[in-house]
Write a structure and sequence with these properties.
By secondary structure, the chain is α/β, with parallel strands linked by helices. It has 7 helices and 9 strands, in the order E-E-E-H-E-E-H-E-H-H-H-E-H-E-H-E. Helix 3 crosses helix 4 and helix 5 packs parallel to helix 6. The chain is globular, with a radius of gyration of 17 Å.
């Protein structure tokens, strides 16, 4: 089966002579839940941003459905991120000036979807993941566990083909962590490629494959 997302001979460094990694290759398939592990400072989060087209590699190729996309324009990569990718960041990355519901609906704006049409799906996700606050509450009123579940709802709203999660359980209690990992696992089983950066052996054990940097 052809890979939905593939990295070939990637290299990246924030400074030209100080590469975080080089010659890195991997392929990711629909239906797969994959863990990326390794010591702190090895570039795991950076790799996730490269795979998600938020950074351009110093060298190498990133292919989506077999098509090289690493050299696409900023606008083209933004469109691909909006249409094909979902992200769960380590710190949830919620906008404190917007309501919980608006945070979840944020991606619909970039996909060209009417937020009003997407709102029922967003509310259903918030209920599914047990965010027990009014949708018009602000992120400053939520716990860390609730913030990460809100971020997960935002990532899942567009039913992305590729879902990338950076330490999604790092600051969560056991109950919230299980809820998040179960959701990521289920999304993979529904046909997406799910890639999670983690230091937690228990999370890696739930994955189909582990790649160590």
């Amino acid at each position: 089966m052809a890979a939905i997302l593939e990295a070939s001979d990637l290299a990246f460094g924030y400074q030209p002579r100080a590469l975080l990694f080089e010659g890195w290759s991997a392929a990711f398939h629909r239906g797969e839940f994959c863990a990326v592990t390794g010591p702190s400072g090895r570039g795991k989060s950076t790799l996730l941003y490269l795979l998600g087209l938020m950074l351009a590699p110093t060298q190498g190729r990133i292919l989506l459905d077999g098509n090289a996309v690493e050299s696409s324009s900023d606008r083209e990569r933004a469109q691909l991120r909006a249409q094909r990718f979902g992200f769960v960041f380590q710190d949830a990355a919620l906008d404190a000036t917007r309501t919980i519901l608006d945070n979840v609906l944020e991606g619909s704006l970039y996909r060209g979807e009417d937020p009003k049409a997407a709102a029922p799906r967003a509310l259903a996700l918030l209920e599914k993941f047990q965010v027990e606050l009014r949708a018009d509450a602000r992120p400053g009123q939520v716990s860390g566990g609730q913030a990460q579940r809100i971020a997960l709802c935002r990532a899942l709203l567009g039913n992305p083909d590729v879902l990338l999660a950076d330490e999604p359980t790092g600051n969560l209690d056991a109950v919230s962590a299980k809820l998040v990992i179960n959701a990521l696992h289920r999304h993979a089983r529904e046909g997406a490629a799910v890639i999670v950066v983690t230091h937690d052996p228990a999370v890696a054990a739930r994955c189909d494959r582990e790649i160590s940097l």
